[in-house]
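re: that complex we talked abt at group meeting.

here r the seqs, copy pasted straight from the sheet so there may be weird spacing, ignore it
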Amino acid sequence: MTAIDAPEARQATPEFEALALRQERRRGFLLALPAWIYLFLFFAIPFGIVVVYSFATRTSRGGVALSAWNLASYERLGEDIVRNVLVRSLGLALLTTVICLVAAYPFAYYMTTRSTRVRNLMLVFVMIPFWTNFLVRNYAWRLILAEDGPWNTTVDTLGIDSVTGWILDLPSWIAPDVLVGWMADVPEPLFTKLAVVLGLVYSFLPFMILPLYASIERIDSSLFEASRDLYASARQSFLRVLLPLSMPGVVAGSILVFVPSLGAYVTPDILGGGKEVLLGSYIVTQFGTARNFPFGASLSVVLMIVMLTATIGYFRSGGRNL
Amino acid sequence: MTDSVRTQTSQRVLGLHAVFVYVFFYAPILILVVFSFSGDRLVGRWGGFTFDWYGEFLDNEQLTAFHDGAIWTSLKVAAVSTVIAVVLGTLAALSLERFRFRGQRVFDALLYLPIIIPDVTMGIMMLIFFSEAITFADTYLGFEFAKGLKTVVISHIAFNISFVSVVVRARLAGMDSRLEEAAMDLYATRWQTFAHVTFPQILPGVLGGALLALTLSLDDVVVTQFAAGPGATTLPVFVFSLIRRGVTPMINAVSVVMLVASLLLIALMLLADGLRSVADKSS
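got the structure back, here u go
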């Protein structure tokens, strides 16, 4: 009886339902409102100002004139110096991504072949470095690679200078010309491109392992076994079954490593000695010593466009579900 | 026969690779801890066991002074920004997971941006925004303010809201919404449903989000550097400038302290995770 007396039950008409729906919408909107307002004020507006700045003109005193809108800052992107910075940053971010992928794939695959208990333990020990202070982790490499540090001491004691020298020289064989120029004649491992790549790999490797593991773990292992039963070689099984099925993880992991590597600022500064040659520090310079806000803003916009494109790709690949 | 031998060998190679990955992850951290006890004036050279650098760290007024030392500044910023971000982020997560409203998709996208934006870009945004806001307030609103602790807190909240909401949303998505429906069918009001059903269920997610926000706030260098004014130097900003100016072994000691703080937060996080699985089992 009571249920029938309830006002909701009596008024379950189309009008009432529409009203309830409207109320429900308003409740949702009101809940979201504080965060809406906050992000609008302190994220969307700053975002917009950077875009506006990128079309402004630098005054002779290093200020910003908004009156004359133009594309001058974007035209500068074609200059040799700027193009070199962009190509170099892209190259380094790409190299970092490839190294992470090659190192993470077998690791993630191995994880999926272990028991649940071991898996969870392995996961926790991948997460710990990922949560550990970023600055400290990069600084640790600075200490290791320092002139009198553990790396050089070990190399000297073992007398393997020629071997490590050859390894340090390796990127110059595979990297494009702009990279080589920066890498030439560096006697110490610290403050080289390789040190920067090492630091980036160290910082972002968990970003590659986690989505790869998630996507390999989902693959029905009987598919892989079936291919082996049907006389596919290990290589064939990997290339034709495992790899295509784990592609969402590969794409997601690559984007998660590539984007922060491209915009990296702290790692190149600590391990690359702050030479103003990578995109992140180049942008910062525009707001510091160079005092060219519009140009710095246009570089930031370029970085944002790359990032947004990559993120859309990430969602398309189903990365959000990983 | 040969096949199983081959499988065994490949498993062994993969296992060895995994060991190598873990050594790569943890050896640098261990080396750092060891060298924080080294007596030599050069950061990377061993010179006998000593606690001197920890002593120097404790004596450093800029770091440890009560109220305005870098450590206190960091803790204050992290605490305030976490509390506000947790409230706003949780509300946002609830609205997105449990309601349909106009502008939802735009809100969702806006909420994702602070997560994916490179921190240099976010830093630049804050730098320009606050300088424009200061001019605007001075000319049109007739009050003056300068960059300081408040602007740092504002910028940290801006990125933390998003991270909190992602964590809480994941928790809400995994929660059975029939529980809430059942409560409301049994005449619980919306508020009662939230207080007695929804909130206890998502609490582990809220705690997880709060710990993530704390970690990110305590970690941040780049955004803070651009949003901060004089007198608002956080610990990471201070350490970053020390590293740039030239390395003294005291940095090793400070780094180890930061490392221990990170590990404590991780331990808490694993504990919150344990709570989550306990909560899942009991429901």
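couple things i noticed - The mean pLDDT of chain B is 86. Chain B touches chain A through 89 residues (CB under 8 Å).
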